[in-house]
Design a protein that fits this description.
It is a single chain. By secondary structure, the protein is of the alpha+beta class. It is 41% helix and 21% strand. It is built from 19 helices and 19 strands. A hairpin with a 4-residue loop joins strand 9 and strand 10. Helix 2 crosses helix 4 and helix 13 crosses helix 15. The mean pLDDT is 95. GO terms for molecular function: ATP binding; glycerol kinase activity; rhamnulokinase activity. Pfam families: FGGY_C, FGGY_N. It comes from Candidatus Pseudogracilibacillus intestinigallinarum. Belongs to the FGGY kinase family.
Length: 489
């Protein structure tokens, strides 16, 4: 039996999963989970890196038996700046900090956003590393000279574990700083944006050995030395790698706080339509690309339920399901990706404001809010998939959904209804599973990704969802598109 630990960090929680490979069968066991929350200081939003790293070590201590290796994957775009004393210049900023918005606008005045898209394959968004770093260096003019290297977030954690300063392709592809053809840092673009080339750590090949845990870490957690594997650093790349049945042309949806909807492509798709519709191209575990759109996901539900909980009105999953079932369908819609919902003071009030501004029935009950969110999410995923079919000149035959969000059966069923496509859901912990598969490949226990996907299919089942009430959903989709037009989407 071979054992590895997948350290899988999302924007709302982190998880350490013990993954075992024995007799051509894979099993997963969650050994530690912890909340990951943004902290505010001096008007800015940061990640509590020390807490995250402490929790990782707590989880590693819990692991039983011999652990051969560990690997880290996280959400995209965020990073840390290491000084010449090998310490962080400051805690890592969160992508939800809005200090990047004016910076992005200034960059686009000098360099067209379409040119940047065509070069990097990445949609321009204020959260991207390019604009974050520009904002930080603009505020701290001396930091460039103080910088030893810049590490994307999973590579930052790898550095704390192993002492190795190397970035990784899939996560680097989210920064909007990587050239899509060379698959290396775009020094020409960076010089245009910064006037110099920021000190990004070089890339280390994915699915290979990076190093070993430092002696200080081994002593802290009471474990023997473990190999540190350079797994796909971006959690969506890990999730895609773990999808067992995905066929050429099938769509994938990685469902969590965000929902990433896309298809695999050999090369970046940077057409005029892809640019105008906000698509992005990010790396895969196999060195290719996934053409996708980053969409709002369960953040809307999470924030609404948190708001109710803080008001003493917490609901269980069973109550949530009953409220959705009892609520009138198609009563009102929102555009889940409207700026209103990015980080509002009150998610419930933001939803009501959107409906008011678009002359719809205003949801007031919990059931109406929940149903509005879930139906709107499913409708937006159809909107995205229709445009993927256009820019790739293909018909998507089916959808494979993975991630924690698939535990919400309404999200899966409504997606099948709205898109009118067969949906296969599973596995739930896809990111940690893809992380572990990469480790087994690097260690030589699995030959390649084809064999890895077969192992997943043999070890984990999927749940099937088929389209229901086709005509009603088709009519409701026309209603939804009219709402988008009212907001001048």
């Amino acid at each position: 039996m071979k054992q590895v630990i997948a350290i899988d960090l999302g924007a709302s929680n982190g998880c350490l999963m013990l993954v075992k490979l024995e007799d051509d069968h894979i099993t997963q066991e969650e050994i530690h989970r912890f909340p990951n929350e943004i902290v505010e200081k001096d008007g800015h939003l940061y990640w509590n890196l020390q807490m995250i790293f402490d929790e990782i070590q707590k989880g590693l201590k819990k692991a039983k038996g011999k652990i051969e290796s560990i690997g880290v994957d996280t959400w995209g775009v965020d990073f840390g700046i290491i000084g010449k004393d090998d310490l962080l210049l400051d805690r890592p900023f969160s992508y939800r900090d809005t200090h990047t918005v004016p910076v992005m606008e200034a960059v686009h005045q000098n360099i067209g956003s379409q040119f940047i898209f065509e070069t990097t394959g990445v949609e321009s968004a204020a959260i991207n590393t390019l604009y974050q770093l520009k904002a930080i260096y603009g505020k701290h003019s001396d930091w460039h000279e103080k910088t030893d290297t810049i590490l994307t977030f999973p590579s930052l954690l790898n550095y704390l574990l192993s002492g190795k300063k190397r970035n990784e392709f899939t996560h680097a592809s989210t920064t909007q700083m990587l050239h899509s053809e060379t698959k290396d840092w775009d020094t020409t673009l960076l010089k245009k944006v910064f006037g110099y080339i920021p000190k990004m750590a070089p890339l280390h090949e994915t699915n290979t050995l990076l190093g070993e845990t430092k002696e200080s870490i081994n002593e802290s957690i009471g474990k023997e030395t473990m190999k540190v594997i350079q797994v796909p650093g971006h959690d969506t790349a890990c999730a895609l790698a773990a999808i067992p049945r995905i066929n050429r042309g099938s769509a994938f949806m990685s469902c969590g706080t965000w929902v990433l909807v896309g298809v695999e492509v050999d090369n970046t798709v940077v057409t005029k339509e892809a640019f105008e519709w906000g698509f992005t191209n990010e790396g895969t575990a196999e060195g290719k690309y996934r053409l996708q759109k980053n969409n709002m996901g369960l953040w809307l539900l999470q924030q609404s339920k948190r708001e109710w909980r803080e008001n003493g009105e917490e609901i269980t999953y069973e109550q949530e399901a009953q409220l959705v079932q009892e609520s009138e369908p198609f009563r009102s819609f929102i555009d889940p990706d409207d700026q209103l919902f990015f980080n509002p003071r009150s998610m419930v009030e933001a939803i009501q404001q959107f409906c008011r501004e678009t002359n719809q029935a205003i949801p007031t009950t919990k059931g109406q809010i929940l149903r509005c969110i879930l139906e709107s999410l499913a409708m937006k995923y159809r909107w995205v998939l229709n445009r993927i079919e256009f820019v790739t000149d293909t018909i998507i035959p089916d959808i494979h959904m993975v991630g924690g969000g698939i535990q919400n059966k309404f999200l899966c069923q409504f997606t099948a209804n709205a898109t009118q496509k067969h949906v296969q859901a599973g596995p739930i912990e896809a990111s940690s599973l893809g992380n572990a598969l990469s480790q087994f490949i690097a260690l030589g226990h699995i030959k390649n990704w084809k064999e890895a996907k077969q192992l997943v299919e043999d070890s984990f089942g999927v749940k099937e969802y088929y389209t229901e009430e086709k005509e009603k959903w088709e009519s409701a989709y026309e209603q939804f598109k009219n709402i988008l037009q009212r907001k001048d989407f």
